[in-house]
Amino acid sequence: MSSSPDPTTSDAGPERIIEGTGVAPGIAIGALYRYNVGPPEVDRTPIAPEAVEDELAVLEDALARAEQEIEQARTIADRILGAEQAAIVEAQRMMLNDEALLGPVRERIRTEHVTAGQALQSVLRGYRERIGESEDAYLRDRTDDLLEVETRVLRALERGRTVAQIEPNAIVVADALTATDLIQLHEHGLLGCVTTGGGPHSHVSILARALHIPAVIGAEERLEAVETHDRAVVDGQAGRLIVHPSADTLEDYRRRRARQQSLWAEQAQAASAPAETTDGHSLSVQANVEFEEELQILKEYGADGIGLLRTEVLFLSRPAGAFTEEEQVAVYRKAARAAHPHSATVRLLDLGGDKSLSQGPREANPSLGWRGIRLLLDRPEELLRPQVRALLRANTEGALRVLLPMVTHLDEVRRVRSVIQEEADRLSREGRAHDPTLPVGAMVEVPATALQARAFAEEADFLSIGTNDLTQYVLAVDRDNDRVASRYDPLHPAVLGLVQRTAAAGRDTGTPVAVCGESAGDVHAVPVLIGLGVTALSATPSHLPGLKRLIQHVSRAEMDALATAACEASNAQTVRRQAREWIAQHVEDAVLDAPDVSSP
Ligand code: PEP
Ligand code: MG
Fold it and tell me: How far apart are CA 291 and CA 209, in angstroms?
């Protein structure tokens, strides 16, 4: 890309706007780079004899990447319920380590001086042809696996090379990106990204937000027509890619970018100060974390620890059963270090419901079915006990807390406490280091739990209100169903009434009450939640500086008044209007750059 044109000036091409969905706000202005669009291509340029060792290293790197990807394809569901899928993946993994297959590939690179891709393709193609003619049906079926392995390694090879070739300040256009791609591209100075696939809650979208990389997904239309080196603007807020921007458009976006950057700088400053209201009330502003990579960026966003470490992705992204107790100990220790000097709240595995088991039993109402703590208590040996042991072992510095998902009955908290006690005793007998003082918190996601908040506040060490699920269950609106999405709002007075009840129970019993649903990152919801009495908020890391800045500019007394009016309102629209007016009245525009996340 060394011959790329100056991306900061407009060019002659007609301006084209490609619409998508903005998933990470911000403006990027630069030159496009098409990445991984279409099937992987094999480089057939002969390599120099002295480059053989480097080429072998490239192959090893690609094999490792492909193996990582294959592992990600296996899920915990396979472990519990479906052996067939796990067996297929295991077969592919074995192929990647099979010397009979890979020996000839390496040999070809050494003796024929061909690229790793060419060697791999020719060896595997020959192999496929041979077993495709076999009498043995099992062997014949392996041709698909071989093809899949070949494609994965070729793609991994192509990605490795592409990442190395991308110049700093590129806007990447791709069919899809993995989180690993994004991190590598970020290290290469990636400015923005636009993909045809992906979802707003995907790993890569969350990371893009966390890393302040403007990102647009679902940009299907005319994306194949864009070229590497085309000048472009990404508007991650509006969800727009503008190719060949006109001089006026560029000027407009340069102004917006400058404003955005100065806001981010101000927010970064706010993030390093405590979240204290103008009348001296301190709040704890914590991070929601789903991916190990996010642990590295918490300090930057001024997180007062981790309020919710969701463990589903940690399990689901590993091969079946391979999130071993030892691996869990390492991750939880890392989380405790990242949260220091605050605590890290680790939620027990919350499977089922929307995070459904791909191979699991079909349930007519999965959200009301076998999920969260119910599944864990029914299968304690497979999931609950190893996770509890790992938490106890990782808790040597006393910084961890455990949070129970989908709690409905008081008895569930008591039963988990017994399991913690039993596992702590067992660790003592085994002579293993651990800390048995692991505070136990209950998620308040089910209306019954909020209605019995006082009893839960006495039973648990802390409460955390999951407004995503609480809203779904209070309003009987599926949180993932587009058809009813307009009826879903955590600011509905009925939901707020339960938040208030829970906060009051916490205050009366001295039990901390947090909100960790998406509403804790919504600037309109936050003053209401604080006014209702919650003392901690836990949200996506990139939202935290904006939240702190908001809190630092308002008083608790003003928020109390807003919350009182909100509880008396007759519907969510009225509460939203009140919150908007309140913000306009009490907060200067410049303070408010935090994204408005009105639904999960
Ligand atoms: C919630 O329900 O609000 C919550 C935080 O849990 P999740 O979104 O993981 O279901
Ligand atoms: Mg939930």
Answer: 13
- Based on the fold, state whether residues 81 and 224 are members of the same structural domain: no
Tokens of 235: 């508007």
Who lines ligand 1 at CB under 6 A?
308, 310, 350, 445, 466-469, 516-517
What does residue 572 show for φ and ψ, rounded to 5 degrees?
A: -65, -35
CA distance 65 to 72: 11
Residue with the smallest CA separation from ligand 1 atom 8 is: 468
CA gyration radius for the chain? 26
Q: Which domain holds residue 189?
A: 16-37+163-266
Q: What pTM did the predictor assign? A: 0.70
Residues 167, 32 within the same domain: yes
pLDDT in tens, 558-592: 999 999 999 999 999 999 999 999 999 998 765 66
Tokens of 442: 């209950």
Tens-digit pLDDT profile for residues 128-174: 888 878 777 667 767 777 887 888 788 888 776 666 667 778 999 98
Say whether 516 is catalytic: yes
* For the CA of 516, the nearest atom of ligand 1: 5
User: What CA–CA distance (Å, rounded) separates 62 from 82?
Assistant: 29
Is the domain of 54 the same as that of 152?
yes
CA distance readout (Å), 291 to 185, 313, 437, 478, 512: 17, 7, 26, 25, 25
Exactly one of 492, 516, 524, 543 is catalytic; name it: 516
Q: How far is the CA of 514 from the centre of ligand 1 (A)?
A: 13
Q: Point out the catalytic residue in the list 203, 212, 342, 524.
A: 203
- Most ligand 1 atoms within 8 A of CB, residue of 312, 371, 469 to mutate: 469
* 289 CA to centre of ligand 1 in angstroms: 12
**In this structure, are residues 170 and 31 in contact, taking their beta carbons and an 8 Å threshold?**
yes
Q: Are 488 and 599 in contact (CB under 8 A)?
A: yes
Overall number of domains in the chain: 2
3-class DSSP string for 60-92: HHHHHHHHHHHHHCCCHHHHHCCHHHHHHHHHH
Ligand 1 centroid, distance to 387 Cα (angstroms)? 19
Does the annotation mark 409 as catalytic? no
Ligand 1 centroid – CA 600 distance (Å): 9
Residue 310 Cα: closest atom of ligand 1: 9
**Backbone φ/ψ region at 26: left (φ over 0), alpha (ψ -120 to 50), beta:** left
